[in-house]
Design goal:
Strand content: under 5%
Radius of gyration: 21 Å
Order of helices and strands: HHHHHHHHHHHHHHHHHHHH
Bound molecules: tryptophan
CATH topology: Amino acid/polyamine transporter I
Helix content: over 70%
Number of helices: 20
Structural class: mainly alpha
Length: 449
């Protein structure tokens, strides 16, 4: 165990930690995943459920990870061993496995965003967006862009917590916020924007009776908030005891929801102004990469500029998220085997790059990996985290969360932990039940088709 509290890297500023955590949360999940889930889950009905899940599950679980990480002062495997005993270290291995798998396919999608941004500069978007997406989403080009994106991610993680992760977040996140807001303002000027807003913001309440939508909203909350695999835990392990953790968790969760919500205010008007809603329903994985480019193409020169900004934002969000995924695996290798940061980041990055060749060669494989790691493993990980922090080591976590909190936030800690103890486990267990069923069905159709 090379790293102890004394020698451990640390974030330089409080804002640096919050922006890094927000950078982990805000990513492809906010724009790519949120919009297609909302369009499938009854628009605002999904958004409503999603807000409930963020409040009921997201904030308490993020706080649990923050508490465990800052208490443990090690990457997930080490922190869980230190706090929960050797049996809980196994959960840390599950986290690492989830991180490996998520980053492998996440990087492929990030590669698409970079490709689209470059294409916007070079020659604009393709008129036959569906065929174009089919041609570039998998195959040699997809592999090449995936490798390029992984190299960028590895370079930042090699730079360290302060010099790499914190610095990148301090530059990239404000840039992302500005562009997203600018694009949402621009979207108000579109003809037909009203119809898009209506579909997005008028709830189809029938969908509230559909358990699949509930499950999707909960799983989306874990994915979007980077919960259930120790990413937030790892970042919090680089903190000293002066950070106000309950306040930070609330700020990060609302920032993440804010970006997802505003992204919807861009995506829906763009798609409805050109009546492209069919393209979103037709393909989940590719929805954004087909409907939006065709819209941008139809808008001529302005569309090219706006589209460029949109895909740059996606790529930036993806990069700050990918950093956190790689950091979980890298930090685990550093703490467990005593590798240097440089060696650990390059070795784990190379393994992930190799694994990512599979989803880069088939969007079906990509979708299946998203179901297994991006949903099932996260939900299972979140359930275990809630039990560990809420029951097994509750008093330690509670003391940790109160340390550094202002009086107001310190008073909220027992309340939030109450939700974590009593509300989160049964809800997450129910979600897990449905996720297992859905994953089995996804397996069956993957191997049948
Ligand atoms: N939250 C990111 C997004 O919305 C993805 C992500 C980064 C993630 N780190 C994670 C998801 C850890 C789950 C766990 O795009």
């Amino acid at each position: 165990m090379a790293a102890t509290s004394g020698s451990r890297e640390a974030f330089g500023t409080r804002a640096g930690f919050i922006l890094a955590a927000a950078g982990s949360a805000v990513g492809l999940g906010n724009m790519w995943r949120f919009s297609y889930q909302a369009s499938e889950g009854g628009g605002a009905a999904f958004v409503l459920l999603y807000v409930c899940m963020t409040l009921l599950l997201g904030i308490p679980l993020m706080l649990a990870e923050f508490g465990l990480g800052r208490r443990g002062q090690l990457a997930p495997i080490g922190s869980l061993r230190r706090l929960g005993g050797p049996a809980w270290a196994r959960l840390g291995y599950v986290f690492v496995a989830a991180g490996l798998m998520i980053l492998a396919y996440y990087s492929v999608i990030a590669g698409w965003t970079i490709r689209y941004a470059i294409e916007a500069v070079l020659h604009g978007f393709s008129a036959s967006a569906g065929e174009h997406f089919g041609a570039v989403a998998s195959g040699g080009d997809a592999v090449a862009f995936h490798i390029g994106f992984m190299v960028l991610t590895i370079l930042i993680v090699v730079g360290g917590v302060k010099g790499g992760i914190e610095r990148a977040s301090l530059i990239l996140m404000p840039m992302l916020f500005l562009i997203v807001i600018g694009l949402a303002v621009w979207a108000t000027t579109l003809d037909g924007a009203g119809e898009g807003y209506a579909v997005y913001l008028k709830p189809d309440l029938n969908e509230l009776k559909n358990p699949t939508v509930w499950r999707a909203a909960a799983a989306q909350a874990f994915f979007s908030l980077s919960l259930g695999m120790g990413a937030m835990l790892t970042f919090a392990s680089y903190l000293r005891r002066d950070q106000n953790l309950p306040e930070s968790a609330t700020v990060v969760a609302f920032t993440d929801f804010g970006v997802a919500f505003v992204a919807g205010l861009i995506v829906f008007p763009v798609i409805y102004s050109l009546s492209l809603q069919g393209a979103v329903g037709a393909s989940t994985v590719g929805a954004l990469f087909i409907a939006l480019p065709s819209a941008f193409e139809a808008m001529g020169g302005a569309g090219r500029v706006v589209g460029l900004l949109f895909f740059v934002t996606l790529a930036v969000g993806a990069l700050t998220s990918a950093i956190s995924l790689l950091e979980v695996v890298t930090a685990s290798m550093m703490d467990e085997i005593g590798l240097s940061r440089r060696k650990a980041a390059i070795a784990t990055g190379a393994v992930i790059t190799a694994l990512g060749i599979l989803p880069a060669l088939s969007t079906e494989t990509l979708g299946l990996m998203d179901k297994i790691a991006g949903e099932l493993l996260l939900v299972a990980g979140a359930l275990a985290t809630a039990i560990l922090a809420g029951w097994r080591v509750r008093s330690e976590v509670e003391a940790e969360l109160i340390a550094g909190a202002s009086p107001f936030w310190a008073r909220q800690v027992p309340r939030i932990l109450g939700v974590l103890r009593f509300a989160a486990p049964p809800i997450v267990a129910t979600v897990l039940f449905f996720s297992v069923r859905e994953t089995i069905a996804a397996f069956a159709s993957y191997f049948a088709g």
